[in-house]
Design a protein that fits this description.
The complex is a heterodimer of chains A (296) and B (272).
Chain A lengths: L1 H28 L2 E2 L6 E2 L7 H11 L3 H8 L1 H34 L5 H13 L2 H12 L4 H8 L13 H25 L3 H9 L4 H12 L1 H16 L3 H5 L8 H10 L4 H33 L1
Antiparallel strand pairs in A: 1-2
Helix pairs in contact in A: 1-14, 3-14, 4-8, 4-11, 5-8, 6-8, 8-11, 9-10, 11-14, 13-14
Chain B lengths: L5 H24 L16 H8 L1 H34 L6 H13 L2 H14 L6 H25 L3 H9 L4 H30 L2 H6 L7 H9 L5 H42 L1
Helix pairs in contact in B: 1-11, 2-11, 3-6, 3-8, 3-10, 4-6, 6-8, 7-8
Classes of the chains: A mainly alpha (296), B mainly alpha (272).
């Protein structure tokens, strides 16, 4: 009895506030826009009983999805989100790996401090971290002033409101998610393996490629998923650092909902974003499962 | 012996410079006399003064604090229960769905979570305000709490609980007197995580909020959309300072607790 109550409370909460809302999105994505409040038809009228349900299903169609498929904007937004997420994941890996490597090689008494320094920005507001780049990258910003001052450039660079700024923002804010799993993989690495490789005639560089990289693959893969999945649906970074031509699906959904007030299309955008995310999420879960099994 | 080369030293220096310079620059410019980012016009704390007098920001900060407090407390209770169910309850009908619902919000894009909750609140006719934001934050934060707590519960020695039950405790007493003290560090870090997530959240709050319940991130976002502003620099500096002090204190406290525990264990061994 007690056990049933213990299970029921979080269960009911999650069904009511996670599963049901999601089903509503699915439902509205199959509805038509209407000039009313709430601005869509048909609405499920449970009071009308079985007839209500029948007429509800009869009125459903895939119009919004056909619309998404025919309108260029959405295709381009999905593709450009995928591109931005992939490129920035790769860049984060390039920046994050040497840091994780340096941390794992540092003296053991230094490592807790270094780890705290990586985690500290994670506790700081995400919004503030994105915002901090606005003062640096803008035309009169700190970076341009510095470069003009030392004479590297003669005209300010236009970085703010471009995709470059979005890449910088994503790399900066998601860097801890890349560093931590790679660090924990590298920290477990047995030094004698490297010594063995060098004794057998490997150069230090080839020992790195043949031993260190393969043994840290688990961390690399986990880090890449942890960056790629949230980056794909990112809203704050493209809307603060990106330009009007920066197309990302999170931003499109936001505008569709708040500016155009087209709820059915916003819901359809959400459903397709989720369908795109299902594959990396399942791959990520499988990767985590494999890592757990390897541990035991 | 681990090799520590110049390459590692350089990558660490550059890496941490990249992580910290933007925030350091932000802090420095919050003390700039001039409104312009370009000109350094001397040291001044006037933006802090303006910030403190800005009632909109103060009001938003108060709303955010209330939302974060209530949602993190609720999320800690629900998340700990969920962790208990995942680790201890064994098999029951719908277990797969349950663990799916626990993990899905962790990877769900915020825009989707926000949109779906808003559509629910409108659907059931709940007026949007502080309550709806609390409900929304509780839902996604409880999943983070349950992940943190369940990782602690997995490594927990069940025989301690069984001993308490054998000695006549009721299951609830056994939980309160034996399990809870042991998993307390995880519950506390879960609460802290939930609190920070709620303080920080812009997207879900924007969808689920209503008139009179503007949170600080929403206020900050609408201010910075127009560009850099010195008041926001001052506000950011205050928030960075609070977080830094908080994280350093927490790590010192947990270090001291670890030292104390090691000492207790040694004393117990000697006593045997």
């Amino acid at each position: 009895m007690r056990r049933a109550v213990l299970i029921a409370i979080p269960y009911v909460w999650l069904v009511a506030l996670f599963l049901v809302p999601f089903l509503i999105v699915l439902k509205i994505s199959l509805s038509d826009i209407a000039l009313a409040r709430p601005p869509y038809t048909p609405q499920l009228d449970l009071a009308a009983g079985w007839d209500g349900i029948k007429s509800f299903f009869a009125a459903l169609d895939f119009e919004n999805f056909t619309f998404l498929a025919t309108d260029d904007l959405y295709w381009k937004a999905y593709l450009s989100s995928l591109k931005i997420a992939l490129v920035s994941t790769f860049l984060t890996l390039l920046v994050g790996y040497p840091i994780a490597y340096g941390m794992a090689r540092a003296a053991p008494e230094w490592r807790p401090t270094l780890l705290m320094l990586v985690i500290l920005p994670f506790w700081t507001s995400f919004l503030i971290r994105v915002y901090s780049w606005m003062g640096i990258l803008s035309t009169e910003g700190v970076l341009n002033q510095f470069l003009l001052g030392i004479g590297v450039i003669s005209e300010p660079l236009q970085i703010m409101n471009t995709n470059t700024a979005v890449y910088i923002g994503i790399v900066y804010t998601y860097l801890p998610f890349m560093i931590l799993p790679i660090y924990s993989a590298l920290e477990k690495l047995d030094d004698s393996l490297l010594e063995a490789a060098e004794d057998l005639g490997c150069s230090r560089l080839s020992a790195f490629w043949l031993v260190t990289i393969p043994l840290s693959t688990g961390g690399i893969v986990a880090g890449c998923f942890l960056v790629f999945i949230p980056a794909l649906g990112e809203f704050v970074i493209p809307s603060l650092l990106g330009g009007s031509d920066t197309l990302m699906i999170g931003k499109v959904l936001w505008e569709e909902f708040f500016s155009n007030r087209d709820w059915p299309v916003a819901s359809a955008v959400a459903v397709i974003l989720l369908l795109i995310l299902v594959i990396p999420i399942i791959l990520f879960q499988r990767n985590q499962q494999l890592a757990r099994e390897a541990d035991t | 012996m681990r090799r520590f080369s110049w390459f590692n030293a350089t990558s660490l220096t550059l890496g941490f410079a990249f992580l910290y310079l933007p925030m350091i620059i932000l802090v420095i410019y919050s003390f700039n006399e001039s409104r312009l980012v370009t000109v350094w016009a001397g040291f001044s704390t006037k933006w802090y003064g303006e910030l403190i007098q800005n009632e909109e920001f103060l009001g938003a900060a108060w709303v955010t604090a209330k939302v974060a407090f209530f949602s993190s407390c609720l999320a800690t209770v629900l998340g700990t229960m969920a962790a208990y169910v995942i680790v201890r309850a064994g098999r029951f009908k719908g277990r797969t769905l349950f663990s799916g619902m626990i993990y899905a919000p962790l990877v769900m894009p915020e825009v989707i979570t926000g949109l779906s909750l808003l559509l629910l609140f409108i659907g059931i006719g709940l007026d949007r305000g502080i309550l709806t934001v609390v409900l929304a934050h509780t839902t996604f934060a409880m999943c983070y709490v349950s992940v943190v707590v369940s990782s602690r519960l997995v490594s927990f020695d069940r025989s301690l609980e069984e001993a308490a039950l054998d000695l006549g405790c009721s299951p609830f007493e056994a939980f309160r007197l034996v399990t809870l003290p042991i998993i307390a560090p995880a519950v506390i870090s879960g609460w802290l995580l939930a609190f920070t997530l709620s303080l920080d959240d812009l997207v879900i709050a924007s969808f689920t909020t209503g008139p009179g319940a503007t949170t600080l991130p929403i206020k900050v976002f609408s201010a910075v959309r127009l560009g850099v502003s010195p008041e926001i620099n001052a506000l950011s500096t205050l928030m960075i300072a609070i977080v830094t002090v908080g994280v350093i204190t927490a790590s010192l406290v947990s270090k001291r607790a670890a030292v104390q525990q090691a000492r207790d264990e040694r004393a117990a061994e000697r006593a045997e």
